[in-house]
Amino acid sequence: MIIARLALENDCDDLFEWRNDPTTLKSSFNHSIVEKKDHNEWFKDILQSQDSTLIILEKGKKKLGMVRYDRKNSFFHVSLNTNPKQRGKGYSSDMLLSSEKLISANNNHIKIIADILKENKLSVRTFLRAGYKLKTQK
Question: What is residue 28's three-state secondary structure?
Fold first, then answer.
């Protein structure tokens, strides 16, 4: 069973490693390596943000990855990153669905948007399996 919980300060280093993983960089809109200082500032800000929610997904004692929701007007923009050690195990759609339950518990009638690079076929498949609909491709 996948457990969704809010991120804590001690998750910072894991997310830093996952963010700078070569596969993550290739799949991201921003392909640049993030410096530790910049990541730490971002992480501190995101934990305090009223408009963003950072969720960690776990199975047993293993961290599977993270899902972030950023509120913009009446929508939540979603971003997902799987722990590189847990990739290819079929967790990503379930991670997304588990995180949606947590974010929905505190927000009524949410509308979620995922911006995905069209060449990121794995991510497109993850979101389609989780019930998202493809609207546009760029």
Answer: coil
Q: pLDDT tens digits for 18-55? A: 999 888 878 777 778 989 999 999 999 999 999 999 99
Q: Is this prediction's pTM over 0.85?
A: yes
Q: Is 138 exposed, middle or buried (0-12, 13-18, 19+ CB in 10 A)?
A: exposed
Of 16, 7, 24, the C-alpha closest to 41 is: 16
Query: Distance (Å, rounded) from C-alpha 14 to C-alpha 41?
Result: 15
- What lies within 8 Å, CB to CB, of 91 at 6+ separation is 2, 57, 59, 64, 65, 82
DSSP 68-132: EEEEETTEEEEEEEE-GGGTTSS-HHHHHHHHHHHHHHTSSS-EEEE---TT-HHHHHHHHHTT-
